[in-house]
Amino acid sequence: MKKKSVLLIFILCLTLIITGCWNSRELNTLGIATVIGIDWEDEKILVTIEVINPRPVKAMLEAKPADLVLYVQGRGDTIFGALRNISLKFDRRIFVSQNKIFIFGEEFVKKGFINHIDVLQRDHESRETAYILVAKEKKATDIMGVHEAVEEILGMYMEDIIENKKFNPKGVDVNLSEYLKYYYDSGRQPILGVVDRKEKNAIKKADTHEGKKEYELVVEGCSIFNKEKLSGYLNGEETRALNFVRNEVKGGEIEFPTPVKNVDHYSTPTPSIKDSSSAINTPNRSKSVLEIIKSKTKSDVEIKNGKFILKTKVKMRGMLGDVSGDIDISNEETIKLIEESCSKQVKEEIENSIKKVQKNYKTDVFGFGTLVHRKYPKEWRRISSDWNNIFSQADVQVEVETNIIRTGLVNTSTNKIKGE
Amino acid sequence: MISKDIDKNKERLIKEFNNTSDLVAYEFRTNSNLKIIISYLEGFIDKNTLDRDVLKPVITRLESYNDLKKIIFVSGIKEINTFEEIIEEIVSGSLILFIQGCKECFSIDLRHWEKRSIEEADSEAVVRGPKEGFIEDISTNKMLLRRKIRNPNLVFENYILGEQTETEISVAYIKNIVNEDVLDKVKKRVQDINTDSILESGYIESYIEDSPYNIVSTISNTQKPDIVAGKILEGRVAIFCDGTPHALIIPRLFIENIQVSEDYYSRIYIATFLRMLRFFALFLGILLPGLYVALQTFHQEMIPTVLLITMAGAREGVPLPSVLEALLMTVMLELIKESGVRLPKAVGSAVSIVGALVLGQAAVEGGIVSAPMVIVIAITAIAEFAVPALTEVMILYRLFLIVLGGFMGLYGITCGLVVIIIGAVSLDPFGIPYGYPIAPLDKTGLKDFIIRFPLWSMKKRPGYLVKKNRIRQRNVRKK
Amino acid sequence: MKDNVRISSYQAILLIIAFRIVLAFSYQPAINAPPGNQDNWIMIFLSTIYSIILCVPMLILSNKFRDFTLIEYMKLIYGRILGKIIGFFYSMVFLLFTIIFVSILVEILDSTMFPETPTWVTASMMLITCIYISYKGLESIGRGAEIFVPLILVVIAVIIILGINVLDFGVFLPILSDSSFKDINIGAIEIGTKFVDILILAMLAPYLDKRENLNKIFIKSLIYSILIVVSMIIVSQAALGIEQAKHANFPFFTFARLINVFEIVHRIESIYVVAWITSNIGKITGYLFFTTVSLGQTFRKGENKVYIIPVSIIVFISSVLIKDRRSILAAKEPLNKITLFIALTSIFIIPMIALIVYFFRRDRLKDKISAK
């Protein structure tokens, strides 16, 4: 009995191994996709894929950037169909697990893209961590094929510039999973990143072809949604304000007008706080820069007399990065002035941004609805379906507090001679 | 029974030994005209002593056989009177002395034969610690062990095994520490051996081990007396076999494969680090090629993009599937190793040059195998050398996992690994669980697991091994 | 099974924990159970109370009959014929669970790793492994648990720690305001009845080296496993949001896919899959093994090893038949109902009746206990 069963198992093992490897895919049968662009074209979905064209290491080092990748396209009624149809034209199986970026053409986004992207979540190969970008007023195909970075492969450098958000919060890094999380959340509307192709100012490089336009890609700003509907775009500063409210600012810089009041602690007594406000209000073209080291936002909502008040409190810690103007910063009071000026700048940005969204787009991308849900769960049940309207009429209160904790290597701005 | 007529005895002896030419039967008369025959096997005895301390007094002073012990200056003299005993004594190297008209004969122990001097054990080189190794002679080996443990509790029990070879076997243990269950099992199984020959301790191993079909070996062997001493002090049993420098130690648990005697001689941090390293090497040696194949053919998403692009580039134009590539390279590696081992040193280096050139360079440049695969196999080979005790096991498991990894990816590897580990922990060599001290868990044993605690903190002997007398030391470094 | 087989309390606890976390590891039924919102973790904690209440009769019986397995004491209590029927019923319960687990495993494997591989290949691979372990016996299963379960727990912990930056615990606010008391209790009962692993504990009981620790083992394994399950559910919900977690078939797996630490540690869900496969091997082996043990004890014929191959062939055929027709996870509703019914009868109703019968036949049964 035992011998027989051992034999049986052995034979079973053997047949398993001999009958082959169903899912094994050798690397040289795969087309590794790094960017997938999706467009709507002639009532069909057009999928454009950037595929890596692998070469032995030596050849890779010598190859021109354009040779490292290939672009393949497929059309179909669904993304899945379009992806499969590529196999009729391209010899390798498209492998999307390494895909970094989805670029959606604007038309595709406007035509209810949420109905089509189920496959991106359902398919086990596709990754939820791939970033999604909306091609602003363009098609995905316009974006793909632009090479203006050290990294030759579009997917890799797009990923890098999206992740630069931590130095410059004027963009957003939203991936598929995050988008869906907010899509399902009635208290917060989703946003997506934006990519735009811009013409470069002509630079005369020795090997630049004459007459050929040079392009570069920019991921500044974001697109905001009401559920799946594209409501509009925010520019870089507004996106930064959005990031402030969503507590997603990790770093970055704030440019603000330098307070003009000349503070010279050798002669004049220190200005009173009353003066300082007038000092900041004086129109001035010279700007200073604060580099954010840490920023924390606390948002809150309150119902007063049946009206919602949206409150946001930002606390920033930063380092003076650049000071221009007639100012000596080696003075406690001056630093206070600068801090106030900076706070005012951020406060205005945030207020303007929220007001713009309230007025023009009527969609709560800031997530105040979630706060209402937490604070007033009973009311929320009643108003959640109508929240976007209530949001657009709510009052806004913004408080910003800045602390300058480092001032750099010099104490007085470059253009000022000390003691004058 | 021997006869009073010593000529008859001589005839019978020669007949018993089938006229063999190395049997010496030397006949002479003493000054008192007693006829005497001495018999021995050529080369087994010390001729100087024979001439000086036996022949000279016997010839000059022997008058009757009663005086024999008074005049011979040799310690080992026995009176024997059967031919079975005589034969036994002769083959074990004694001299037999017949005296005319005497019903008994004398066996005089003059054993002395050519043997290798004690040298460094070549297969178990150490940087720190005793360098001496066992030799082929069992009594020297016993002496080496006794020198480490000068204690009447150290017991050797002798057995003669092998119908033809009559090999001397000695079971060594420490009376008040040894695990009685293990000892009883060992003794019983040794006594039960019924074979014609024992030429090396490996023979004994295969007769007494618990699960002969398991890939994992449950009996270890060593050439070094300090290792044997350390092991039997933990309650184990050692078996010496005449004619081989390899002593057996019973039982062998998994953890012993990554322990090295030097761990105990060096400081704890480096010892712990090295153990972790060996553990890691063990996993690399078993898993790496299989894992590589699995990742490359099933789970490309796990490989970082940049590396994947490089790997994809390296695989362009390689004709074989990854599984076959890995199998081929593994077999080639073993081939190079195997052909190098038994060759004279000069030719051996030639083999490795050919191997390195052919496998490393030409195969990659010719596009037969991909360069990352060569790197993987090379790492595996290095990892294999870091755990010499498990080399044979690692090779087989590696091939097994390559096949599974190429067939079902990580799923196959997981199943394979589960089978390997369950197969190992299910072993109970001589009643001691192989996976001790982690499966089953034992806290005293954990002090000498991957992290080696200071020697003074290992107050108790390992739990499952030592049942009685468990306290190793007490009250040290405690104030 | 040999009588001298012994497993320690530690091994038993690890085994039960492993069996318990497999579900949370794969398709996390608790996320979709009522109330189905941010309060699910409270519901799961509450379910321990229901689990304990449900398991009390069986625990009392196992404590009274310390030398007997579930099957053996059922036979003693109910008499020979009825006892045999009940023993057979329990064997079938084990068998059914084995089949369900194999089917779920194959489904998840095929949808996450091997979409083109035929069902029978994945299933037979798993069963061969399980058969091998079953042949090695209970002691090896216990020792295997000592090696693998801590590793699995480490993998879970590592995944949770690595994924900490995608977690947003804000989703759990407001607490207890969106769900009614009734919803939470319904969910808790539903989850509480899922503790079928008490059957395994009742089968293990006579082989424990310290039999008086049975209650301790039960409570410890229940609490530890609930803690692990809750942490996994909290993490999945925090990472995906309440709604997306409900959408996902395998929420913890989806969570593991989101992990990305410094661009180096990412796409590590295959490690999760490895840990998950290992825990499944454990669970399937456990149920397969105890199917054979209970068959052996029901019919008192031969050792359990005789039944291993036939039972696994049945498991193989039925799981392949099921899998080639239906997606078992898509058919969650009927499956849940069947398992709920079976779990209730096998955990609660039969032992409850047995307990009542025991109280009436106490004296006679006591002789039988001491006779062994």
Helicity of chain C, as a percent range: over 70%
Instruction: Extract low-pLDDT stretches of chain B.
Output: none
What is the overall shape of chain C? globular
Number of helices of chain B: 16
The number of E-state strands of chain B comes to 10
**Which CATH architecture of chain C is right?**
Up-down Bundle
Distance between the termini of chain B: 70 Å
| Backbone structural class of chain B | alpha+beta
**Can you count the helices of chain C?**
16
Transmembrane segments (chain C): 12-29, 41-61, 81-106, 118-135, 147-172, 184-205, 217-240, 271-293, 305-322, 338-360
InterPro entries (chain C): Spore_GerAB
Subcellular location (chain C): Membrane
GO biological process, one term (chain C): spore germination
Can you walk through the features of this model?
Chain A is built from 15 helices and 14 strands. Chain A has 420 residues and is an alpha/beta fold. Chain A has two domains: 201 residues, no CATH class; 154 residues, 2-Layer Sandwich (GMP Synthetase, Chain A, domain 3). In chain A, strands 1, 2, 3, 4, 5, 6, 7, 8, 9 and 10 form a ten-stranded mixed β-sheet that branches. In chain A, strands 11-12-13-14 form a four-stranded mixed β-sheet, sandwiched between helices. The longest helix of chain A has 30 residues. By secondary structure, chain B is of the alpha+beta class. Chain B folds into three domains: 103 residues, no CATH class; 115 residues, no CATH class; 165 residues, no CATH class. In chain B, 46% of the residues lie in helices and 11% in strands. Chain B is built from 16 helices and ten strands. In chain B, the strands form two sheets. In chain B, strands 1-2-4-5-3 form a five-stranded antiparallel β-sheet, covered by helices on one side. Chain C is mostly helical. Chain C contains 16 helices and two strands. A two-stranded antiparallel ribbon of chain C has the order 1-2. Chain C is globular and about 65 Å long. Chains A and C meet through α1, α9, α13 and α14 of A and α6, α11 and α12 of C. Chain C: It is a multi-pass membrane protein. Chain C: Keywords: Germination, Membrane, Transmembrane, Transmembrane helix, Transport. Chain C: Belongs to the amino acid-polyamine-organocation (APC) superfamily. Spore germination protein (SGP) (TC 2.A.3.9) family. Chain C: It comes from Anaerosalibacter bizertensis. Chain C: One of its GO terms (biological process) is spore germination.
